Amino acid sequence: MSHPNPVSPIDLHMHSLASDGTMTPTDLMQRVHAAGVRVMALTDHDNTAGLAEARVQAAALDIQLVPGVEVSSEWSSQGIHIVGLFIDPANNILQGGLSRIMAFRDWRALEIGRLLEGAGIPDAEAGARAMAGSRMVGRSHFSRWLVREGYCADGNEAFGKYLGRGCKAYVPSDWIPMTEAVGWINAAGGSAVLAHPGRYKLSGTRLRVLLTEFQDAGGIGLEVCSGSQAAGDREHLGRLARQLGMVGSVGSDFHGPDVGHAAIGHLPPLPDGVEPVWDRAGIHLH
Question: Domain Polymerase/histidinol phosphatase N-terminal spans what residues (predicted)?
C-alpha cells in the first residue's frame, strides 16, 4: 500500500555541523520549524556538541528538542549505528565512551590524509577539517573536499576511487561493540534504537538475530521509517517490531538541503500496531 508523505510532526534523526551535517544547529532548528515539525531529535555522530545551541533555538521556536546521539558501533563484524534518544548529554559514562570514538576518528582522519597525500593529493586532511567546521571529521568531509577541489566529479567517485573499502585511502573502522554502545546510552537514561536497519543489507535471519541480541543488550527499538533506507522496508520492519515487542522510531536522517536522504519530516507514519518510542517517553502527538 502506498503512503504519501505529508510532513510528520515528529522526526527523531537529524545531523548538524557538529558531525557530518551541513547546517549549524541554529539554522537546522529554523528549518525544522519552517517544515512544521514539532518534535525533533538532534543525533549527531559520536558527539553531543550541537545540543546546547540547538536547545536555545528550540526554546525560541517552541520546538520540543529530544537530546540524542548516533553512536558508531559494530556487531558481528558488521558496522551498525545506534541512535540514543532522550539521553542526558552530561552523563560521564556516555561522554567517556564518545571521547574514545572521537579519538579514533581523529586518528583515522590523519591516516586518510596521509594516504591521499601518497596518492598525489596533498593537504586533504586540513581541507576536510576546514570543511567539517567542527572536531568530527568523517569520510563525507573528505569526499566533499575532493569534489570541491576537482579531484572527483561527485561523492560516488570519491568513495569509489579513494575512500571506499579497498580503495587508495581506505582506513578500516575500529568501532566499539554494540553492547558497549547500548550500555552508554542506557547509563545516560536514554533509549537505544537501531538506526536504519534496512541499510545493512542483512538477510532476514541475520537481521532478526541482530535485533534479538540488540534487545538482550538493552536496546528497545528500531527505525521502522527512515529517510536513508528504502520505503519498502517499512512494512517488514514494522512486522519485526511487533513480533519482537520492540518500539518503532521515525527519522529522516537529514544532513542538509543538498545532501541525500529525505527532507525534514517527510516520513510515513509507523505501521499499525507498532508502539512509538516517543509514547514511552510521555510525548503524545495530537
Answer: 10-75
